[in-house]
Amino acid sequence: MVSLPDGSASPTPSPPLVTHSGRTHHAVQAAQGKAAALAVISSPRARVDGVSVIPGQPQRRIAEWYMCRDSTCTQRRNALTVTGNGFADAHVVDLPPHTSTWSLEPAGPDHFAVA
């Protein structure tokens, strides 16, 4: 599950932290993932592939973005934007590579399920 930026939902538990050379591996991966996701959504080549809204809460939205990494678009880079205020601002999440559209579904009054 993905938590909304306002913190109203409990996020999915994080994997245990593993330290390497004095740095936290999970924190480094998260920073790299966010940078990659920001690169996707800010690219003029990026496309929106899916959107979902929480019923009765139209300001709570999620959008899946992708960018083709090759000319046939068989390799994609994916990202999510999640908002609680109609995209006035949003939380950006990196997604692992996927060959088709991710499923974005409301999973309660303040969070989404991504599969």
Tell me the helix content.
Answer: 10-25%
Proportion of strand residues: 35-45%
The outline comes out as globular
Which structural class is indicated by helix and strand composition? alpha+beta
Low-confidence stretches: 10-26
- Mean pLDDT over the residues: 79
Ends: how far apart? Answer: 9 Å
Question: How would you describe this structure to a colleague?
Answer:
With 115 residues, the chain is of the alpha+beta class. Residues 10-26 have low confidence and may be disordered. The protein contains one helix and nine strands; from the N terminus they run βββαββββββ. The strands form three sheets. The chain has a four-stranded antiparallel sheet with strand order 4-5-6-7. The chain has a three-stranded antiparallel sheet with strand order 1-9-8, with no helix packed on it. Strand 4 (47-54) and strand 5 (57-68) form a beta hairpin. The chain has one domain (22-114).
How would you briefly describe this protein structure?
With 115 residues, this protein is an alpha+beta fold.
Search tags:
three-stranded antiparallel sheet; globular; 115 residues; four-stranded antiparallel sheet; 9 strands; alpha+beta
Helix-strand layout with pairing:
Layout: E1 2-3, E2 19-20, E3 23-24, H1 25-42, E4 47-54, E5 57-68, E6 76-83, E7 91-95, E8 104-106, E9 111-114
Antiparallel strand pairs: 1-9, 2-3, 4-5, 5-6, 6-7, 8-9
